[in-house]
Structures are given as structure tokens and as C-alpha cells.
Amino acid sequence: MIRVPVLPPKAPRRSRAIGRWLGRTVLGLGGWRIEGDWPDLARMVVIVAPHSSAWDAIWGIAAKLAMGVDIVFMAKKEAFVGPIGWALRYFGGQPFDRKAASGLIGQAVAGIRGAEKRWFVLAPEGTRRQVEKWRSGFWHIAR
């Protein structure tokens, strides 16, 4: 069983024993561990990079479950189809339309500001391909 850091008091929680067990088991089987501590903030933007594979989502969801934290993340709307889409929404996924990026930043900011507690995760590259430069949307959302 892997060690999981204790969440600070202001962290948004979504804790179910079966979910924590499942997350820890998946991470342990994959050879992953969670290190470090979270800041005691009710709202924050968490940047994950590099986003290089669809496996990033599986490990990220497993870590979220293991810690019992309620983290919201963005994913392309094409991923939210059928049972996979239901699972992504259940685990905190919010679909976005990459072709209508003009309102994406505003929607993300409104979701963070409108919640008493919200930890929001995104990949600054905006893709799984290797990029030379990160897109700037993550910075505007965080600010």
C-alpha cells in the first residue's frame, strides 16, 4: 500500500473508502507513489506537464482517488462519449470544445471563482504531442 499525504484543511474532499483503496492499488501496481504536500488553499490551479499519453489521465485519476481529493480537470469533448464519458464526468472531468476556444478560459475561471472550494487541473500544452512552447491559457486561468 502506498503512502498518501494528508490533505490540508481547506482542500476540497471527495472521499470514499473504496475509491481511496482503488486509487492506491492502481498506483501501487503501476509502481507510482505520491510525494510532497499540498498547499492549504481552497481554490487553485494545478499544472501537470508534460501531457504525453492517455495514461496520464489514468494515473491522475488514481492519485485523485487515493488522496480523497475533489479535483476537476478539463478534457476534449470528443473523449466524453459513451461509458468513458460517464466515467470521466464522474471522476471530475469537464468537456471542452477545442474549436470554440474563445470562451474556454472564461468558463474555467467562472467555475473556479463560483465554487467555495475548487482544485482545477490542466495540461498547459493543450495536447499530448511534444510542443516547443506552452499555450498561455493556463496562465490566464491561474491569474
Summarize the helices and strands and which ones pair or pack.
Elements: H1 17-30, E1 43-47, H2 55-67, E2 71-76, H3 82-90, E3 93-96, H4 104-113, E4 118-122, H5 137-142
Parallel strand pairs: 1-4, 2-3, 2-4
Helix pairs in contact: 1-2
- Unreliable spans: none
Rg of Cα set: 15 Å
Distinct helical segment count: 5
> What is the string of SSEs from the N terminus onward?
HEHEHEHEH
Record field, number of beta strands:
4
Q: Give the distance, in angstroms, between the N- and C-terminal Cα atoms.
A: 37 Å
Query: Which class do the helix and strand fractions yield?
Result: alpha/beta
Biggest sheet: strands side by side, in what order? 1-4-2-3
The main pleated sheet reads as: 4 strands, parallel
- Rounded mean pLDDT score: 85
In helices, the fraction of residues equals: 25-40%
Note the overall shape.
globular
DSSP strand (E) fraction?
Answer: 5-15%
Structure explained in plain terms:
The chain contains 5 helices and 4 strands. The longest helix has 14 residues, at 17-30. The mean pLDDT is 85. With 143 residues, the chain is an alpha/beta fold. Strands 1-4-2-3 form a 4-stranded parallel β-sheet. It has helices at 17-30, 55-67, 82-90, 104-113, 137-142; strands at residues 43-47, 71-76, 93-96, 118-122. The protein is globular and about 45 Å long.
